[in-house]
């Protein structure tokens, strides 16, 4: 029997609510998964993408991740992974660096065999580029063939990638598809093939109310998928429906009924009651020991309008990054954008610094000014278009409050130096990855339990095999 942990959407480096503690929580959650892997002596940890929240993780997040992966390597447990949309870069991937350091294996069109199981990978691929995929995989002699990918796949909610087509077009008959990108866990079957999302390891939005965790998957004469939860920072959800004569006093009373110590407190107001000032309720929650407090008033049409426009004031910088990524800027354009938005350059010096940087790029040629989007260009990572509906719903619940906080927190936000891997020689074979038409039968006892069934879906990744990457010393 081969036993693996299927995890993903760890989003290491996410400074949720601009909180350093929440940022550490995401790294701690990933470490909790690795702790379980070592304690249980599993055969591998399979990561289905979005290891990092950003394509330019900071040094502290890289070092923390490296430390955790070294522990896994010391235990003799391989780390097999694909690239998600949040962390995908235009050149070398962070996963390539970890592979070069001997701490990870990037899954692709060639099988990686563990026991009787062969694992394949399909990185996130923007929806606009999927028609180019041919889903060509090298065959294996293993008893089970498993595809690992990142995207919003059918039959889960909000899907935009047809699993049935992937399975039919693939040159390998997959027995299971292990997915990432949708933060809600779920298990389904498509053409007798198990398709499952592991869910996220931390709550990336207030709509993710269920416990976080991962999948434990056993491969023998059948495939058994079980859900396992991990301990994460508590979220206290307080839903208050106010009657016509009810107001702030009722909300405060409901707040006092909960232990909010070190918790993220989410208060949602509905009903026909009196106006409530969110800042006053949040201040009381913080006085009672909450780490973070957010109040959303669904009666506020302005907040709803902002949510409808897809604006998430909880993290304005992330929203801007996603919009910029979708524009397909050239290397020079991205560099200029970063100069303009950096907090370490005075506004009076921006024009001169930009002029100087453009002049330096021009001396090197015009390659840096070529746009990245186009049919004849490298696949452009999607960073925001395929966000799950659960996060979109959360925008509505947080928009009014986070609009008030965004400017004040921006003023005292610590500088965040960016680090990105040097371009490596990669075989961009995004057109050679995919799924299969499956006819393999599964025993009835392999069906997941009721607690394992859930929702799923998310975004995908194009497949690449890295031939080379710079050493860690060149990055740090």
Observed structural traits:
476 residues, alpha/beta, Purple Acid Phosphatase, chain A, domain 2, 3 domains, 6-stranded mixed β-sheet, 12 helices
Report the count of strand segments: 17
Helix percentage range: 25-40%
* Largest sheet, strands/sense/barrel: 6 strands, mixed
Low-confidence stretches: 303-316, 373-476
Describe how the helices and strands are arranged.
Blueprint: E1 2-7, H1 20-40, E2 44-47, H2 59-74, E3 79-81, H3 94-100, E4 105-106, E5 112-114, E6 117-122, E7 144-150, H4 163-169, E8 176-180, E9 186-190, E10 193-197, E11 213-219, E12 223-229, E13 235-242, H5 248-256, E14 264-271, H6 278-287, E15 292-297, H7 301-308, H8 316-326, H9 331-341, H10 347-363, H11 389-411, E16 426-428, E17 464-466, H12 472-475
Parallel strand pairs: 1-2, 2-3, 3-4, 6-7, 7-8, 8-10, 13-14, 14-15
Antiparallel strand pairs: 1-11, 5-6, 9-10, 11-12, 16-17
Task: Provide a descriptive summary of the structure in words.
The chain has 476 residues and is α/β, with parallel strands linked by helices. Helix content is 30%, strand content 18%. The protein has twelve helices and 17 strands. The chain has helices spanning 20-40, 59-74, 94-100, 163-169, 248-256, 278-287, 301-308, 316-326, 331-341, 347-363, 389-411, 472-475; strands at residues 2-7, 44-47, 79-81, 105-106, 112-114, 117-122, 144-150, 176-180, 186-190, 193-197, 213-219, 223-229, 235-242, 264-271, 292-297, 426-428, 464-466. Strand 14, helix 6 (278-287) and strand 15 (292-297) form a beta-alpha-beta unit. Helix 9 runs antiparallel to helix 10. The chain is globular and about 70 Å long. The relative contact order is 0.19.
